[in-house]
Write a structure and sequence with these properties.
By secondary structure, the protein is mainly alpha-helical. The chain is built from 7 helices and no strands.
């Protein structure tokens, strides 16, 4: 009726059904409630699966392989069909560089074995030795380039010299990426938990062994193309 007010009981029932105007919904308060805990769990960073890193390095290696196979195909076609091909006398230091790079694969595996045996000092010793051998290999490649320059052989001298510099230069750049990965594993912070030390060492070893095998293939290709 006009002029009458709702009984207190009806007002209480309406407020109870509507949840009240001043009360926030569950999970929206400052403490988060149960919903806040779920949001915290969803927002918490999860450590990536090791399989994710294996997939990433596989894609990278396939891409690098396709790049070098395209160069090798062009090398073979021009070597057989070109009438102006001039043989490049490969510097003997390339053989020494190859032995250095192969030795780095052995020291890398020795380092990983030390890690599996819970010998961190042995792991670090062999790992740094591998890094040093990798740097020594790149330095040896620089010496080989300087020897060719001293002979008057430059990248634009002829087709054979162009391929030599492209092959060795591209490989050296990719190998420096591996040296960077070796240095990362050597000096990574102990509190970095996104990737474990064993996983980082394993993924790096895949890349390093691949670069070793790729160099042996390129060197054989250069010698056969003489």
């Amino acid at each position: 009726m006009p002029g009458t007010t709702s009984p207190p009981e009806i007002e209480l029932i309406i407020e109870d059904i509507g949840g009240g105007r001043g009360n926030p919904p569950p999970g929206d308060d400052d403490n988060g409630g149960d919903g806040g805990g779920d949001n915290d769990n969803r927002g918490r960073k999860q450590s990536p699966s090791p399989k994710r890193y294996s997939t990433a390095i596989t894609i990278a290696l396939v891409s690098i392989l396709m790049f070098f196979m395209a160069l090798a195909s062009a090398f073979i076609v021009l070597r057989r069909g070109s009438e102006v091909w001039v043989t490049v006398h490969l510097p003997p230091i390339l053989l020494a560089n190859t032995l250095i790079l192969l030795a780095s694969s052995f020291t890398l595996e020795a380092s990983r074995r030390r890690l599996s045996l819970a010998d961190p000092s042995g792991f670090r010793k062999f790992w740094l030795l591998t890094t040093g051998l990798g740097i020594l290999f790149v330095a040896g490649q620089l010496v080989a380039w300087r020897q060719l320059v001293a002979q008057g052989v430059y990248i634009a001298s002829n087709q054979a010299s162009s391929f030599f510099y492209i092959f060795t230069g591209a490989h050296a750049v990719h190998l420096l990426g591996g040296v960077g990965a070796l240095l990362y594993v050597s000096f990574r912070k102990s509190d970095q938990k996104r990737i474990s030390l064993s996983t980082a060492a394993e993924i790096t070893s895949y890349y390093w062994h691949f670069m070793d095998g790729l160099w042996v293939f390129l060197l054989a290709l250069l010698y056969l193309g003489k």
